[in-house]
What we know:
Blueprint: E1 6-9, E2 15-21, E3 26-29, H1 38-43, H2 45-54, E4 59-63, H3 80-93, E5 99-104, H4 108-117, E6 122-128, H5 135-138, H6 141-152, H7 154-166, H8 172-184, H9 187-196, E7 213-218, H10 226-235, E8 240-244, H11 256-268, E9 286-293, H12 296-303, H13 305-326, E10 329-333, E11 337-342, H14 345-364, E12 367-368, E13 377-378, E14 382-389, E15 392-394, E16 397-399, H15 401-412, E17 418-421, H16 422-427, E18 435-441, E19 450-455
Parallel strand pairs: 3-4, 3-5, 5-6, 6-7, 7-8, 14-17
Antiparallel strand pairs: 1-2, 2-4, 9-11, 9-14, 10-11, 12-13, 15-16, 17-19, 18-19
Helix pairs in contact: 3-4, 6-7, 7-8, 12-13, 13-14
Amino acid sequence: MEPRIQYAKTADGVSIAFWTLEEGQPLVQMPNLPFSHIQLEWQDPRSRASCERLAEKRKLVRYDGRGTGLSDREVTDFSLDTQMLDLEAVVDRLGLQGFALFAPANSGPAAIAYAAQHPERVSHLVLWCSWARASDWSHSPRLRALRGLVNRDWETYTETYAHVVVGWSAGAEAQQVAALMRESVTQAAMQAWAEAVPRFDVTDLLPQVRSPTLVLHRRQYHLLDVEVARGLASRIPDARLVLLEGESAAPWVGDEEAVASAIDEFLGEGEPAPAGAQPIAAGGLCTILFTDVEGSTALTQRLGDAKAREVLRNHERIVREALRAHGGAEVKAMGDGFMVSFSSATRALECAIAMQRAFAACNATPLRQAQDAHTEPVEVRIRIGLNAGEPVAEEEDLFGTAVIVAARVAAHAEGGEILASDVVRQLVAGKGFLFSDRGDVALRGFEDPVRLYEVRWEEGG
């Protein structure tokens, strides 16, 4: 069923058309100005499928910017301030206090400015084939050639631009996109947009973005060099860069599943724990698991902050996938490690083994930073330590002796090892786990030594 078109009124009196799809945590997708038409895009099978895919796990919000699509057309001001007014009108109309923001291509500058000004509202920021200043892309020879067509031949301009955006190999698909462009905006509005763009520059705001940010880019996209994406990721604090293969700036052309999966993974990190995870119980017996990346400080010094952070994000993804599969409750992440609780010692050990096997498989074909073939391979080895007891639960955190012992046990492990206290070993007796006795070990802060056991996790080990 086609989503119902609704309208929101901006502070300066412009009507903005929008629709919503499904329910859940909201993801607001900004229009790729100046070409946007939410009704016609929905009627295109591939564009619709892309929207439905994004809405599988959340509420998707789509709107037409002023001067385009079903929104008011009688406007000529396409400044960044007015673009932010359009966004604000829609989220206020829906009563959204917090939301993830998806900014494709030309909406990037407005999204960056809004996120910098409203960190309390933007939970996550996704930048797709985007940029921060006009000079990042205006030097493109193809774009300079296209500019001359805007005033002279509107149909030729849209046909050519469609091939640049969708890909030169596209045939009927590019023609459909060109027709959509002509329906989305008038030639006069396009000219007004072209005059406004050279003034767009939000590079000074990049360090002020506090929302977790995902920078997605296709390597072979003709209008925007991949170095622009790297520049965004390096200037936004704690941003993640994911480079995908392909030449199209349309997310639904090429490997669209890779785009959706990257967004799902990124947004999923901020969502509540899955149904399989047990909540922290006050005073109940639970197994505490700590992870820690071996040599994380040296890794940062060797790779630099931005690239080391990307490696650590891959570590976070692997750990969280294992937690979801084995019902672990993430208590907190600590940059290069996690503290996790399990209601079952068996599931805790199964999860620890799954983590180590996943990292071993990843290291067998080493992660290349930013997927760049010219960057040295990086291996990630983690230490894991487990203990069981009855910790104190307070404000979604765990405290007490059982927790401290688990952390100390993890500190004694080497990269690629799983160490467990004798308490954990006894709880899983008869469950088929293989242990190697490491003897009594003095733990910092404890008078009595603790018996530790190495969990054998390697196939055939």
